[in-house]
Amino acid sequence: MNVHLAQPVLTAGAPLDRCRAAAILIHGRGGAPDQMIALARMFDAPGVAYLAPAAAFQSWYPYRFIEPVERNQPYLDYALEAYHVRVQEALAHGIPLHRLVLIGFSQGACLTAEYAVRNAARYGGIVIFTGGLIGPEGTTWNYPGNFDGTPVVIGGAEQDAWVPFWRARETVEVFRRMGARVETHFYPGSSHEISAEELAAAQAILRAVTGEVKE
Questions:
Q1: Separation of alpha carbons 180 and 168, rounded Å
Q2: Are 180 and 150 in contact (CB under 8 A)?
Q3: pLDDT tens digit string along 99-136?
Q4: Does residue 212 carry a pLDDT above 80?
Q5: Is the dihedral of CA 91, 95, 101, 107 positive or negative?
Q6: Which end of the chain is more exposed for a tag (fewer CB within 10 A), N or C?
Protein backbone atom coordinates (compact mmCIF):
# COMPACT_ATOMS: atom_id res chain seq x y z
CA MET A 1 0.00 0.00 0.00
CA ASN A 2 1.26 3.47 -0.85
CA VAL A 3 1.38 5.10 2.58
CA HIS A 4 1.77 8.62 1.14
CA LEU A 5 -1.54 8.45 -0.72
CA ALA A 6 -3.34 7.90 2.59
CA GLN A 7 -2.18 11.30 3.87
CA PRO A 8 -4.14 14.59 3.66
CA VAL A 9 -3.62 17.36 1.13
CA LEU A 10 -3.92 20.93 2.42
CA THR A 11 -5.23 23.58 0.05
CA ALA A 12 -5.10 27.36 -0.03
CA GLY A 13 -5.47 30.23 -2.44
CA ALA A 14 -8.03 30.16 -5.23
CA PRO A 15 -10.49 27.25 -5.45
CA LEU A 16 -9.12 24.54 -7.73
CA ASP A 17 -12.14 24.66 -10.04
CA ARG A 18 -11.95 28.46 -10.43
CA CYS A 19 -8.23 29.21 -10.41
CA ARG A 20 -6.03 30.64 -13.14
CA ALA A 21 -3.12 28.37 -12.22
CA ALA A 22 -2.15 25.80 -9.62
CA ALA A 23 0.97 24.92 -7.66
CA ILE A 24 1.91 21.68 -5.93
CA LEU A 25 3.99 22.31 -2.80
CA ILE A 26 6.17 19.49 -1.45
CA HIS A 27 7.52 19.80 2.10
CA GLY A 28 10.89 18.61 3.36
CA ARG A 29 11.91 15.87 5.79
CA GLY A 30 10.33 16.52 9.18
CA GLY A 31 8.16 19.23 7.65
CA ALA A 32 4.44 19.46 7.10
CA PRO A 33 1.98 20.83 4.54
CA ASP A 34 1.05 23.81 6.70
CA GLN A 35 4.61 25.09 6.43
CA MET A 36 4.34 25.02 2.64
CA ILE A 37 0.98 26.80 2.77
CA ALA A 38 2.60 29.51 4.91
CA LEU A 39 5.29 29.80 2.24
CA ALA A 40 2.62 30.05 -0.46
CA ARG A 41 1.08 33.05 1.25
CA MET A 42 4.43 34.83 0.90
CA PHE A 43 4.27 34.47 -2.88
CA ASP A 44 1.37 36.93 -3.09
CA ALA A 45 0.17 35.54 -6.43
CA PRO A 46 -3.62 35.96 -6.76
CA GLY A 47 -5.50 33.33 -8.72
CA VAL A 48 -3.27 30.39 -7.78
CA ALA A 49 -4.66 27.24 -6.16
CA TYR A 50 -2.10 25.68 -3.81
CA LEU A 51 -2.02 21.95 -3.07
CA ALA A 52 0.29 20.74 -0.29
CA PRO A 53 0.30 16.96 0.23
CA ALA A 54 1.65 15.35 3.39
CA ALA A 55 4.25 12.59 3.52
CA ALA A 56 3.71 9.60 5.78
CA PHE A 57 5.87 9.89 8.91
CA GLN A 58 6.84 13.41 7.73
CA SER A 59 9.36 11.96 5.27
CA TRP A 60 9.03 11.04 1.60
CA TYR A 61 11.85 8.48 1.79
CA PRO A 62 14.07 7.36 4.69
CA TYR A 63 17.68 8.09 3.74
CA ARG A 64 19.65 10.93 2.16
CA PHE A 65 18.89 11.66 -1.47
CA ILE A 66 22.47 10.88 -2.54
CA GLU A 67 22.35 7.35 -1.08
CA PRO A 68 21.95 4.41 -3.48
CA VAL A 69 18.41 4.59 -4.80
CA GLU A 70 17.68 1.05 -3.60
CA ARG A 71 18.09 2.15 0.04
CA ASN A 72 15.16 4.54 -0.32
CA GLN A 73 12.81 2.01 -1.84
CA PRO A 74 9.94 1.35 -1.87
CA TYR A 75 9.22 4.77 -0.35
CA LEU A 76 10.82 6.73 -3.18
CA ASP A 77 8.57 5.01 -5.70
CA TYR A 78 5.60 5.62 -3.41
CA ALA A 79 6.52 9.31 -3.23
CA LEU A 80 6.87 9.64 -6.99
CA GLU A 81 3.53 7.89 -7.48
CA ALA A 82 1.85 10.19 -4.95
CA TYR A 83 3.33 13.20 -6.74
CA HIS A 84 1.94 11.95 -10.05
CA VAL A 85 -1.50 11.43 -8.54
CA ARG A 86 -1.58 15.06 -7.34
CA VAL A 87 -0.53 16.29 -10.77
CA GLN A 88 -3.26 14.22 -12.39
CA GLU A 89 -5.82 15.61 -9.94
CA ALA A 90 -4.92 19.14 -11.02
CA LEU A 91 -5.20 18.19 -14.69
CA ALA A 92 -8.59 16.58 -14.01
CA HIS A 93 -9.81 19.99 -12.81
CA GLY A 94 -8.95 21.49 -16.18
CA ILE A 95 -5.57 22.98 -15.31
CA PRO A 96 -3.13 22.43 -18.19
CA LEU A 97 0.49 21.60 -17.47
CA HIS A 98 1.62 25.01 -18.71
CA ARG A 99 -0.34 26.55 -15.82
CA LEU A 100 0.91 24.10 -13.20
CA VAL A 101 3.95 24.97 -11.06
CA LEU A 102 5.90 22.32 -9.13
CA ILE A 103 7.57 23.60 -5.95
CA GLY A 104 9.58 21.77 -3.31
CA PHE A 105 11.83 22.54 -0.36
CA SER A 106 14.77 20.37 0.82
CA GLN A 107 13.71 16.70 0.57
CA GLY A 108 10.61 17.95 -1.23
CA ALA A 109 12.85 19.85 -3.66
CA CYS A 110 14.77 16.65 -4.40
CA LEU A 111 11.52 14.81 -5.03
CA THR A 112 10.28 17.65 -7.24
CA ALA A 113 13.46 17.63 -9.32
CA GLU A 114 13.35 13.85 -9.74
CA TYR A 115 9.65 13.79 -10.61
CA ALA A 116 10.13 16.56 -13.17
CA VAL A 117 12.99 14.96 -15.10
CA ARG A 118 11.11 11.66 -15.22
CA ASN A 119 8.03 13.48 -16.55
CA ALA A 120 9.51 16.33 -18.59
CA ALA A 121 6.99 18.60 -20.31
CA ARG A 122 6.16 22.29 -20.64
CA TYR A 123 5.11 23.13 -17.09
CA GLY A 124 4.19 26.57 -15.83
CA GLY A 125 7.36 26.43 -13.77
CA ILE A 126 9.49 24.34 -11.45
CA VAL A 127 11.02 25.66 -8.22
CA ILE A 128 13.74 23.68 -6.43
CA PHE A 129 14.43 25.33 -3.07
CA THR A 130 17.61 23.64 -1.71
CA GLY A 131 17.59 20.28 -3.44
CA GLY A 132 18.84 18.22 -6.35
CA LEU A 133 18.27 15.12 -8.41
CA ILE A 134 18.17 11.81 -6.54
CA GLY A 135 20.94 9.21 -6.65
CA PRO A 136 24.54 8.60 -5.55
CA GLU A 137 27.59 10.26 -7.07
CA GLY A 138 28.02 9.07 -10.65
CA THR A 139 24.27 8.83 -11.36
CA THR A 140 23.15 9.87 -14.85
CA TRP A 141 19.67 10.99 -15.84
CA ASN A 142 18.75 10.12 -19.41
CA TYR A 143 14.98 10.22 -19.38
CA PRO A 144 13.03 11.07 -22.55
CA GLY A 145 11.10 14.31 -22.84
CA ASN A 146 11.83 18.02 -23.06
CA PHE A 147 10.89 20.94 -20.84
CA ASP A 148 10.35 23.15 -23.90
CA GLY A 149 11.40 26.37 -22.20
CA THR A 150 9.82 25.74 -18.78
CA PRO A 151 11.15 28.35 -16.33
CA VAL A 152 13.04 26.63 -13.52
CA VAL A 153 14.48 28.14 -10.34
CA ILE A 154 17.22 26.20 -8.55
CA GLY A 155 18.84 27.62 -5.44
CA GLY A 156 20.51 26.96 -2.14
CA ALA A 157 23.63 27.45 -0.04
CA GLU A 158 27.03 26.55 -1.44
CA GLN A 159 28.10 24.78 1.78
CA ASP A 160 24.82 23.08 2.68
CA ALA A 161 25.57 19.93 4.69
CA TRP A 162 22.51 18.14 3.30
CA VAL A 163 22.65 19.17 -0.37
CA PRO A 164 26.16 18.99 -1.87
CA PHE A 165 26.89 21.85 -4.23
CA TRP A 166 28.19 19.44 -6.87
CA ARG A 167 24.77 17.80 -7.02
CA ALA A 168 23.05 21.16 -7.30
CA ARG A 169 25.31 22.01 -10.27
CA GLU A 170 24.60 18.62 -11.88
CA THR A 171 20.88 19.28 -11.48
CA VAL A 172 21.19 22.64 -13.23
CA GLU A 173 23.04 20.97 -16.12
CA VAL A 174 20.43 18.21 -16.52
CA PHE A 175 17.52 20.66 -16.59
CA ARG A 176 19.28 22.88 -19.12
CA ARG A 177 20.14 19.90 -21.31
CA MET A 178 16.47 18.93 -21.26
CA GLY A 179 15.36 22.33 -22.54
CA ALA A 180 14.48 24.25 -19.38
CA ARG A 181 15.20 27.95 -18.84
CA VAL A 182 17.10 27.70 -15.58
CA GLU A 183 17.63 30.60 -13.17
CA THR A 184 20.04 29.88 -10.32
CA HIS A 185 20.30 31.48 -6.89
CA PHE A 186 23.24 30.02 -4.99
CA TYR A 187 24.60 31.92 -2.03
CA PRO A 188 27.66 31.51 0.22
CA GLY A 189 27.34 29.91 3.63
CA SER A 190 25.52 26.87 4.94
CA SER A 191 22.05 28.08 5.91
CA HIS A 192 19.37 25.57 4.98
CA GLU A 193 16.66 28.08 4.12
CA ILE A 194 15.02 29.97 1.28
CA SER A 195 16.63 33.27 0.34
CA ALA A 196 14.71 36.43 -0.53
CA GLU A 197 16.02 36.19 -4.10
CA GLU A 198 14.70 32.64 -4.50
CA LEU A 199 11.35 33.69 -3.09
CA ALA A 200 11.12 36.59 -5.54
CA ALA A 201 12.03 34.32 -8.46
CA ALA A 202 9.30 31.86 -7.51
CA GLN A 203 6.81 34.70 -7.14
CA ALA A 204 7.68 35.90 -10.66
CA ILE A 205 6.95 32.46 -12.10
CA LEU A 206 3.59 32.25 -10.32
CA ARG A 207 2.54 35.73 -11.40
CA ALA A 208 3.57 35.02 -14.98
CA VAL A 209 1.65 31.76 -15.13
CA THR A 210 -1.55 33.47 -13.98
CA GLY A 211 -1.15 36.19 -16.59
CA GLU A 212 -0.37 38.90 -14.01
CA VAL A 213 2.87 39.69 -15.85
CA LYS A 214 4.52 38.50 -19.04
CA GLU A 215 7.24 35.85 -18.78
A1: 15
A2: yes
A3: 999 999 999 999 999 999 999 999 999 999 999 999 99
A4: no
A5: negative
A6: N
The pLDDT value recorded for residue 191 is: 86
Kindly compute the dihedral angle of the four CA atoms of residues 167, 168, 171, 173, in this order, to the nearest 10 degrees: -100
Determine the Cα–Cα distance for residues 195 and 208; give it in Å rounded to an integer. Answer: 20
- Helix (H) or strand (E) holding 111, with range, is helix 107-118
Q: In order of start, what are the domains of the chain with their CATH numbers?
A: 3-209 (3.40.50.1820)
Q: Following DSSP, what letter does each residue of 15-68 receive, concatenated?
A: -GGG-SEEEEEE--TT--HHHHHHHHHHH--TTEEEEEEPPGGG-SSSS-TTS-
- What separation in angstroms does the CA of 155 have from each of 18, 111, 126, 142, 213? 31, 15, 12, 22, 23
The dihedral built from the CA positions of residue 109, 183, 204 and 102, taken in this order, carries a sign that is negative
By the 8 A CB rule, do 42 and 199 touch?
A: yes
What average pLDDT does the chain have?
95
Q: Global pTM?
A: 0.96
Q: What is the sign of the dihedral through the CA atoms of 100, 98, 176 and 85? A: positive
